[in-house]
Amino acid sequence: MKKNNKYNKKSTSLHCNDAGGCRYSLLTIVWTVVGFFLVAHLISLYSRKDNNIHQQVSSDQLQVVHHLAHPIVRELIRVEEEVLRMPPPRKRSPRTSKRRSRKPIPLVEEFLDDKSPIRHLFFPGIKTAAFGPTKDMGNETSYYFPGKIWMDTQGNPIQAHGGGILLDVKSNTYYWYGEYKDGPTYHAHKKGPARVDIIGVGCYSSKDLWTWKNEGIVLGAEETNKTHDLHKSNVLERPKVIYNEKTEKYVMWMHIDDANYTKASVGVAISNSPTGPFEYLYSKRPHGFDSRDMTVFKDDDGVAYLIYSSEVNSVLHIGPLTEDYLDVTPVMKRVMVGQHREAPAIFKHQNIYYMVTSWCTGWAPNEALAHAAESIMGPWEKLGNPCIGGNKVFRLTTFFAQSTYVIPLPGVPGAFIFMADRWNPADLRDSRYVWLPLVIGGPADQPLEFNFGFPSWSRVSIYWHSKWRLP
Predict the structure, then answer these.
(1) Which residue ranges traverse the bilayer (predicted)?
(2) 15 lies in a domain?
(3) Which domain, by its residues, includes 46?
């Protein structure tokens, strides 16, 4: 018998104890080879796609660099800081305690306290801090002063809270619609939120987005019929108007509720003119779900969408409207599930959809989030807090305001106006407007949530300015 040693060659042939075992071994080898080539093919495809994406990103980045170098944009993105000094500690009033935010921040507590010694910093008085066409502005004419009282052409404070802007192409005029809150603030019951009786939807017109003429109340309250949706004891919030070219009607959507916020519906009204009067049609729970904070968005192809906070404010719902814009279709998507977002403001740039939302903290300000999607129906990715400048508390409170709408900045691609409300729960008619420049540019600072890597779109930035002007 021959002994094996280290110089003996081992056989490399396949040995099988039986036919079944041999077939099993052959199949294993075949599938291994197939799997290898399949993985190699997928890697090749991904590499090509990744190269295409990088090429697209590089192209987009070049556009962004050119865009950010624009002298007007450089002025808008100048970072401005704010320093606010805290007053000495003191006892709070019971009413202020009810307005406490879920995550108390000392400066937010001062904001919510109508007796705060620094309240004038959040709500400057009309004698020293109002602006508008009737004021002697000197070299500051056409400047925005976020948080100060904004006057119309008649010298009265503008009443268009929670509003939105319609650019009427036929007249080349901007129309600003919002809640007309020029009434006393009260609580319907002991634990009820601060409220003002429905007065109606105010409308203002402008050619330059700074000089606003009061066009009156275009949808008024119902004074006597207590069963009517618009009875003064109910709630009308966040009206938005879009124009339907096919029907030649101006269509208004709004949040309709009762004093306890249990009706949770949307309302619809129509008009032949942007200045009304609007005819109220009906209210409903869209898609059979509760609806509170909401907005509408009209896409480039003429399709309009309803976006609303639902399922007790835990989810956003998005769905297309019918061709006449008077109802929703059965199609609906649930997005940002479990994120508790409200106050949606949606806009579009270079075929990417963007949205700014707030957390749900009642009248108390909180941190905004920006989101982006390649399809309006989602999935929507988080882009993080868009606020830049002011100070840390400013950024964590969206400059003590809440989003309501975003409009393109005329003549500057990639730049927008971020519209927000600085709510005053002690006196809601004295709530202020915070309009600031919003710029899309620079790399996103958060990885994708639903895919690998970073997105190809740019980040959203809202820049704080104590005063600024349009180009």
Answers:
(1) 21-46
(2) no
(3) 38-69
What the block records as the tokens of 196 is 């003002």
The 3-state DSSP class for residue 1 equals coil
Tell the residue number behind the tokens 């805290």, with chain if given.
86
pLDDT confidence of residue 410: 79
Give domain status of residue 250, yes or no: yes
Q: Rounded to whole angstroms, how far apart are CA atoms 401 and 108?
A: 11
- State which H helix or E strand residue 366 sits in: none
What pTM was computed for the model? 0.83
Instruction: Give dist(CA 205, CA 382) in Å, integer.
Output: 34
State pLDDT tens for residues 314-335. 999 999 999 999 999 999 999 9
DSSP string computed for 343-363: EEEEEEETTEEEEEEEE--TT
Please tell me the predicted confidence (pLDDT) of residue 190.
79
Residue 256, SS3? strand
- For the chain, what is the domain count? 2
Q: Does residue 277 belong to any structural domain of this protein?
A: yes
Give residue 451's pLDDT: 62
How would residue 36 be classed by pLDDT, with cut points 50, 70 and 90? low
- Quote the CA–CA distance of 140 and 158 in Å, as a whole number: 19
Cα–Cα dist 385/461, whole Å: 8
Distances in whole angstroms, Cα of residue 321 to Cα of each of 268, 294, 306: 12, 14, 7
